[in-house]
Design brief:
Keywords: Aminotransferase, Pyridoxal phosphate, Transferase. By secondary structure, the chain is of the alpha/beta class. It is built from 16 helices and 13 strands. It is globular and about 55 Å long.
């Protein structure tokens, strides 16, 4: 009998719920992808470069023009001085970048601290590298990190800490005190940081995104990972990048070249044009999504759901304890099959499922879709 390297993994909850949404013709607020299209300039330039024959391999680390635009963006947003050629690596999505960063630093028996609820790619990548995930659970409704618990979880085998800010699925963003304590722990215990910042340009209520790139000292031990799919409504393109210190980038690229070698060449050129010509898209992203967050929340205000705070991302958490006694997985199945709205149960993001009755909705949808879904939920 074949022995699986990941025996406990099956079909992801995102695929399950999207499949059920299709089966029951439900409104799909489960999987985190925008309902609206990518910017016209991005699509036009992609077509332009395809027609111009820019269809062969790009340099493994990325098209130089795009690398430079990424470095310029980091400078503009975070006052970070990045050497584009040496520190920026373009990847086939942020998930590839996360996988490669983990493979770069994690060795057999190493431990990596992750915060639950956590993106579901972290643990498999750690296990495939021979490491062990050490899960620290964050609790509703605020999902704040207890750094004393983190300190106590660090052992001689701890190699890295994975942070995610703005945080999927809670919508929480790290504060200056979080970064301060993280830096102290990294320095004291000689740790690495993998900073998942794919929602970096989506923060609300004028709260800044505290990228690791803002702190020169912390960055020396960090991989900072982001996603063009989230920024430009183009998740199907699977385009992301990793910014790392030159010495770590060298090791990162050794593995990246044997995972995808290089990423979709015409898209890289189109993305470079987008960053160069329409940088205001990024500056307007927080306001764009805050309007959608507020629209959904306002239309749910008369429901029996308790709305939890969303400081960033395009997700909103709802406490349904006044609606149903079912656990969150059962409730989400009931919700899509009987009410016609697909959501994600929060327990699937945990190693040890909590008893919280919380579900996640994606509000990266057209306004009419959000209003229609809210009207259904208000009837429950």
């Amino acid at each position: 009998m074949f022995e699986s390297k990941l025996p406990n993994l099956g079909v992801s909850i995102f695929s399950q719920m999207s499949g059920l949404a299709n089966e029951f013709s439900a409104i799909n607020l489960s999987q985190g992808f925008p309902e609206f299209d990518a910017p016209d300039l991005l699509k036009t330039q992609l077509n332009y470069y395809v027609q111009q024959g820019v269809n062969q391999y790009s340099p493994s680390s990325g098209v130089p023009r795009l690398q430079q635009q990424i470095a310029d963006l980091a400078k503009r947003k975070y006052t970070a001085d990045i050497n584009a050629a040496e520190q920026v690596t373009v990847t086939s999505g942020a998930t590839e970048a996360l996988f490669v960063a983990i493979q770069t630093i994690v060795r057999p028996s190493d431990e990596v601290i992750v915060f639950d609820p956590a993106y579901d790619s972290y643990q498999p990548a750690i296990e495939l590298a021979g490491g062990k995930s050490v899960h620290i659970a964050l609790s509703a409704p605020n999902y704040t990190i207890d750094w004393q618990v983190v300190s106590q979880a660090i052992t001689k085998n701890t190699r890295a800490i994975i942070i995610n800010t703005p945080h999927n699925p809670s919508g929480k963003i790290l504060q200056p005190q979080d970064i301060k304590v993280l830096k102290e722990l990294v320095g004291t215990h000689n740790l690495y940081v993998i900073s998942d910042e794919v929602y970096e340009h989506i923060t609300f209520d004028e709260q800044p995104h505290l990228s690791v790139l803002r702190d020169d000292e912390l960055f020396t031990k960090s991989f900072v990972i982001s996603s063009f799919g989230k920024t430009f409504h183009s998740t199907g393109w699977k385009m992301g990048y990793c910014i790392a210190p030159a010495d770590l980038a060298v090791e990162f690229r050794k593995i990246h070249q044997y995972v995808t070698f290089s990423s979709f060449t015409p898209a890289q050129h189109a993305l470079a044009d987008m960053l160069e010509q329409q940088g205001e898209h990024i500056d307007e992203l927080s306001g764009f999504y805050q309007q959608k967050r507020d629209l959904l929340a306002s239309h749910l205000s008369n429901s029996r759901f308790k709305i939890l705070p969303s400081q960033g991302t395009y997700f909103l958490l709802l406490d349904y304890s006044d609606v149903s006694d079912l656990n969150d997985v059962e409730f989400c199945h009931w919700l899509v099959e009987q009410a016609g709205v697909a959501a994600i149960p929060l327990s699937v993001f945990y190693q040890k499922a909590p008893t919280d009755k919380v579900i996640r909705l994606c509000f990266a949808k057209n306004d009419n879709t959000l209003i229609e879904a809210a009207q259904i939920l208000c009837q429950l």
